[in-house]
Amino acid sequence: MPIRQLSETMINQIAAGEVIERPASVVKELVENALDAGARRVEVATAGGGLSLVRVVDDGAGIPASELLLAVARHCTSKLSTDIHEIRSLGFRGEALPSIGSVARLAIRSRTAGSDAAAEISVEGGRVSAVRPAAASRGTSVEVRDLFFATPARLKFMKGERAESSATTDVIKRIAIAFPAVRFTLSGTDRSTLDLPATENTPEGSLRRIAQVMGSDFPENSIAIDAGREGVALSGRVSIPSYSRANALQQFAYVNGRPVRDKLIAGAIRGAFADVLPRDRHAVTVLFLDLDPALVDVNVHPAKADVRFRDPGLVRGLIVGAIKQGLAAAGIRPATTGAAGLAGAFRPGAAAYGHAGPANGHRGFDPAFRANFSGFDPGRSPYRPLDMGFAESAQAGFDAGPAASADARAGTGAPDETLLGAELGAARAQVHENYIVAQTRDSLVIVDQHAAHERLVYEALKNALHSRPMPAQMLLLPEIVDLPEEDAERLASHADTLSRFGLGIERFGPGAVAVRETPSMLGETNVGQLIRDLADEIADNDTVDTLKERLDRIASTMACHGSVRSGRLMKPEEMNALLRQMEATPGSGTCNHGRPTYIELKLADIERLFGRR
Ligand code: ADP
Ligand code: MG
Question: Is the CB of 19 within 6 Å of ligand 1?
């Protein structure tokens, strides 16, 4: 076949293959256009999961009748003038409308502020109509019907209606977080209505929008992140570990206001939470990165969800550092969702009492009631950390002699005055052989001794791990791992760091490294796999966190085995020693699996439970 120029429609259909993957991509492109046009209201409606209909109506600037033909022509945009490095709008490729028009039935009706009438244009499977006068108020309405009718092969790849509509909901939620001052509605026969009333472009407005999208309990179960380094600013919120999810769908990231799905950011979040969450749990996060547009490339993929940073190591370091610092500063702080449940469990039903109880039976239990599970700032703790080395020495403190007698364990007599002033108070009793009941001046504290001790052992192990070279185990025969030359080069340049972790490697010819030692803690390990993972990570992020994370995970497993089992009776001194260690150890509010290690119930709340207030 001779070489021929493709038809305009085929070119657009090829572009559509990348830009318009499913109905949610149509919604994303149209909503981005509305926002670029300065809309304050964006109404989205769908039918049949978006395959039969997507309609987006906005009150933005509108398109002049004279430009409607250009709007649906390829590579025509009002957003990019000269510099591809200065992109501040969501769109810039001039590709979305022509792509949609080539695979569906597209109708655009628009009116600008200055004109006294609207105009409309339609495109069906690439065939463009004439511009016609129409009636409409200011703004733009875009309707897309029968998506992929012109490319039936694509239609076959669509998931069910439910999956497609929920992908659209996700798109709206993601973008709405970046535009708190815009009202979004999403409705249709195929879904329940989502209405996000406008808030403001202020930190408080942004937080209210985040609560609308993530759930009203997210703000109180998350901590604020605010950090900056070398011209890159990071802000947002991350959940406390006990408020985690089974997947990473609730992780939202924005680069200069653009929603992105970025491997680097996701990896940094995972790294930051590696200590406090098990592998199969995921933090809930909203993170905004703001930097000079010249330092980030958004033109990586036509769907514009991928970005490339000029300095990936800086961005990763900033995210990991800021989250870890935030978690440490928040100290030990379990989720309040547990508190709400607890209040519910205490609720005295009328039946249980056999009489009506207080005039307002629910007085003490209004929905706003939250047991105050306050955290504390380890920096303020009057207690110095016990000098713990390895697990054994941490364990030693709890192996002091035979189990105490029941009398010794019960908190008879007056509690020690000075201990009452401590964050976790004075231990008063051990109940059900696993819970330490302690008392502060104004609250009751219940500690899960197994979870708490496990956390302490883990922190001690990790400290030991990172403060001295790791013990290594020599391989009988060095293992040669073949790699692309660049990878071998990169690994060799990190050889010093790796050897501190007990991984001894050397260059072995151009395309291989020789592994002579591996960290003893890893035991039998797939050396080739480890080396390749490390090479990938260095290529992506210029760090060797993979190895560190693996070792931390092993420390976590070891800690679990080396901890005080529940069921062990403890003396008052032992219990108090545990409380003091918890106060001195950052992050000890949750165990390695992200569960709380203690809960605190304020006296005021207890009084409310009894209807005394
Ligand atoms: P891009 O957004 O990359 O510029 P599109 O194909 O999505 O490309 O849109 C082409 C042009 O049509 C935009 O540059 C803009 O001028 C105009 N346009 C599209 N949608 C709207 C809208 N909702 N309001 C105002 N102008 C719009
Ligand atoms: Mg666009």
Answer: no
Stretch(es) of the chain classified as CATH 3.30.230.10 = 215-330
Report whether residue 37 contacts ligand 1, using a CB cutoff of 6 Å.
Answer: yes
* Domain 473-546 of CATH type 3.30.830.10: no
pLDDT digits (tens, 9 = 90+) for 253-269: 999 999 998 889 999 99
Nearest CA to ligand 1 atom 10: 71
Q: How far apart are CA 286 and CA 269, in angstroms?
A: 11
- Residue 116 CA, ligand 1 centroid: distance in Å: 21
CB 237 within 8 A of CB 213: no
Does pTM surpass 0.70? no
Is any atom of ligand 1 closer than 6 Å to the C-beta of 39?
no
Whole-number Å distance between alpha carbons of 248 and 238: 12
**What is the Å distance from ligand 2's center to 93 Cα?**
7
Tens digits of per-residue pLDDT, 204-232? 999 999 999 988 889 988 999 999 999 99
Q: For ligand 1, is residue 212 a contact (CB within 6 Å)?
A: no
Q: Check if 79 has its Cβ closer than 6 Å to any atom of ligand 1.
A: yes
Fold of 215-330: Ribosomal Protein S5; domain 2 (3.30.230)
Question: What does residue 197 show for φ and ψ, rounded to 5 degrees?
Answer: -60, 150
What's domain 361-463+560-609's architecture? 2-Layer Sandwich (3.30)
Q: Which are the contacts of 144, defined by CB distance < 8 A and separation ≥ 6? A: 26, 30, 53, 54, 55, 100, 104, 105, 106
Ligand 1 pocket test, candidate residues 43, 66, 77, most atoms within 8 A of CB: 77
